[in-house]
């Protein structure tokens, strides 16, 4: 069977071959005097109505082609699309810039489209790349614009303050050889993966979780609840299913932690895929620790007992979402915002559906969580595109002006309606988040005070929070409402972020700070194979195809086939920074 990892390896091989030819062609053209440099930010001002202004329109209509990251359920109104919607029309209205999508895709399909674009050298004018490796590859082959001076000139003060709130981590992650080569997404320190449980099912079966009300439960509580759901089938489907997990099992991206086992891992002090400092100060890969072995032991036991979906390893992400939508499963691991785009489907099908968010605590009653690595999502601009400053302007428009305009209902009514109706943020031109380091809990404070009437809507900082207040008030006035947006916003903000806020104030978190994030030279040759080995080994252990002690074989092979070399390179890089 061809796995997604073998597909990636083939694409990488082909991409490198094509890029070698592309690089040769570029150097040949340069030698012949056939290349020309794109205009600088200052020179680009001649195309603008107000040269150099962060929100300036272009005198003549310009076109920008994009690679767009889509989602399965964007909630777009009838007739609207990713290429033509309230947000793209706003770009046309404000900047006189027409967006054309060179490609649209989701998940692995999007990764393949990016790989093919890089391999052929036929990049859209702007696109998102999802790894530092891809960013470096684009830089090494001179395929993208240097955004250093453009960012300095065009970014608004608010956008600069947002990036500065990460104390350099965000911009540094997009900086190569001292030059800013992309506009980075931001990653909030949020929380561990939560356990979302069907509260209406708990009520129906008379199950009381979290008797002390602290929001934290233990693995044993999840086990017992899952077994009761399987035995008593509260969804009345006749085919209840154990807890489903994606076959990748782990991620270091909190926003992408849906259906992963990070919550289970945290109870054992395990942090798979993170680079950590060992007790002796050495660099350790989290997937190879004794704690991770213990975690896999728990997962293998769950699988044997039917607590885990028997088709684990074969279901797609959409297949898993369908299990919840169909009422076959009522326990989901995921981030605070999973009700907004995943569990909302459950409410659409079952008007009585309600979820409560919990988090898992360890044997000592603490909640273990890792500080977020800098986001490895970057908006890049094709080398030679005449208006690279437009990328910064789009960031200004959506993450400053739209987010903070107190009169958005009048100034940007179409976009305001999208926010009010819960249209997914992926429909914006850039499917990234650019928020200050403290924005999640700051927004939660505004929402709670707004709901209580302690502050007026005019005093609420962001347009999104204003819309969330209205939605949550709609839900609170009628908890049986058919309004899925109101239901989703209540669950994600009051249940999800509310739990984060509570645990933060109670100092319940034990934080692990990653020792390293990024890539090293040998990773380019070995990491795809090492990752494939890890995924396949973990699946074998969980499903019982191999005993738990096979983990030791995996660790030994991982070290021999490149892991030790990677660790040495990380040690050298960390030492050089000191």
Plain-language structure description:
This is Sugar ABC transporter substrate-binding protein. The protein is an alpha/beta fold and about 575 residues long. The chain contains 22 helices and 15 strands. The chain has helices at about 5-30, 40-45, 85-95, 105-120, 130-140, 150-155, 155-165, 170-175, 200-205, 220-230, 260-265, 290-305, 315-325, 340-350, 390-405, 410, 415-420, 440-450, 465-475, 485-505, 525-545, 550-575, and strands at about 60-70, 95-105, 125-130, 175, 180, 185, 195-200, 215, 275, 285, 330-335, 355-360, 365-370, 380, 510. The strands form five sheets. The chain has a five-stranded mixed beta sheet. Strands 8-12-7-11 form a four-stranded mixed beta sheet. A two-stranded antiparallel sheet has the order 4-5. Helix 13 (about 315-325) crosses helix 14 and helix 21 (about 525-545) packs antiparallel against helix 22 (about 550-575).
Percentage of residues in strands = 5-15%
Shape: globular
Please give the number of β-strands.
15
**What is the helix fraction of residues, given as a range?**
40-55%
Q: Record the strand order, biggest sheet.
A: 2-1-3-14-6
Radius of gyration: 24 Å
Poorly predicted residue ranges? 1-36
Derived structural class: alpha/beta
Q: How far do the termini sit from each other?
A: 46 Å
What is the overall number of helices?
Answer: 22
**Major β-sheet annotation:** 5 strands, mixed
The overall pLDDT, averaged over residues, is 90
């Amino acid at each position: 069977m061809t796995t997604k990892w073998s597909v990636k390896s083939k694409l990488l091989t082909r991409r490198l071959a094509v890029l070698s030819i592309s690089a040769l062609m570029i150097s040949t053209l340069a030698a012949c005097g056939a290349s020309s440099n794109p205009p600088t930010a200052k020179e680009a001002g001649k195309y603008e109505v107000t040269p150099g202004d962060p929100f300036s329109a272009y005198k003549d209509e310009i076109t920008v082609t994009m690679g767009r990251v889509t989602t399965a359920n964007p909630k777009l109104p009838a007739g609207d699309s990713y290429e033509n919607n309230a947000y793209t029309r706003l770009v046309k209205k404000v900047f006189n810039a027409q967006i054309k999508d060179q490609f649209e895709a989701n998940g692995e399909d999007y990764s393949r489209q990016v790989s093919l674009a890089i391999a052929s050298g036929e990049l859209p004018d702007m696109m998102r790349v999802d790894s530092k490796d891809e960013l470096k590859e684009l830089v090494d082959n001179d395929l993208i614009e240097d955004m250093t001076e453009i960012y300095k000139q065009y970014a608004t003060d608010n956008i600069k303050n947002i990036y500065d709130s990460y104390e350099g981590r965000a911009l540094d992650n997009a900086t190569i050889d001292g030059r800013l080569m992309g506009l980075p997404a931001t990653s909030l320190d949020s929380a561990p993966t939560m356990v979302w449980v069907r509260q209406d099912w708990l009520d129906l079966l008379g199950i009381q979780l979290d008797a002390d009300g602290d929001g934290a439960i233990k693995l044993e509580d999840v086990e017992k609840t899952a077994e009761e759901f399987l035995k008593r089938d509260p969804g009345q489907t006749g085919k209840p299913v154990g807890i489903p997990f994606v076959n990748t099992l782990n991620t270091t991206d909190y926003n992408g932690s849906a259906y992963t086992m990070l919550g289970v891992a945290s109870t054992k002090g395990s942090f798979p895929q993170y680079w950590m400092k060992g007790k002796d100060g050495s660099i350790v890969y989290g997937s190879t620790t004794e704690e991770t072995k213990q975690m896999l032991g728990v997962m293998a036991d769950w699988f044997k007992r039917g607590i885990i979906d028997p088709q684990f390893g074969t279901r797609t992400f959409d297949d898993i979402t369908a299990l919840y939508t169909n009422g076959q499963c009522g326990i989901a691991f995921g981030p605070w915002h999973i009700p907004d785009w995943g569990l909302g489907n459950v409410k659409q099908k079952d008007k009585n559906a309600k979820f409560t968010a919990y988090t898992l605590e360890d044997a000592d009653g603490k909640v273990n969580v890792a500080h977020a690595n800098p986001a490895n999502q970057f908006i890049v601009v094709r080398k030679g595109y005449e208006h690279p400053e437009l990328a910064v302007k789009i960031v200004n428009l959506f993450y400053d002006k739209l987010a903070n305009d107190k009169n958005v209902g009048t100034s940007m009514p179409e976009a305001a309606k999208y926010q009010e109706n819960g249209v997914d943020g992926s429909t914006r031109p850039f499917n990234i988040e650019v928020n200050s380091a403290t924005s999640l809990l700051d927004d939660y404070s505004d929402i709670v005070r707004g709901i209580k009437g302690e502050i007026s809507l005019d005093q609420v900082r962001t347009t999104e929070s204003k819309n969330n207040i209205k939605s949550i008030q709609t839900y609170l006035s009628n908890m049986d409402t058919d309004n899925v947006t109101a239901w989703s916003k209540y669950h994600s903000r009051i249940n999800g972020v509310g739990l984060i806020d509570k645990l933060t104030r109670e100092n319940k978190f034990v934080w692990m700070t990653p020792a390293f994030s990024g890539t090293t030279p040998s990773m380019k040759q070995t990491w795809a194979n090492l990752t494939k080995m890890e995924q396949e080994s973990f699946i074998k252990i969980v499903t019982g195809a191999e005993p738990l002690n096979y983990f030791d074989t995996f660790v030994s092979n991982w070290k021999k086939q490149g892991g030790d070399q990677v660790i040495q390179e990380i040690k050298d890089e960390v030492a050089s920074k000191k």
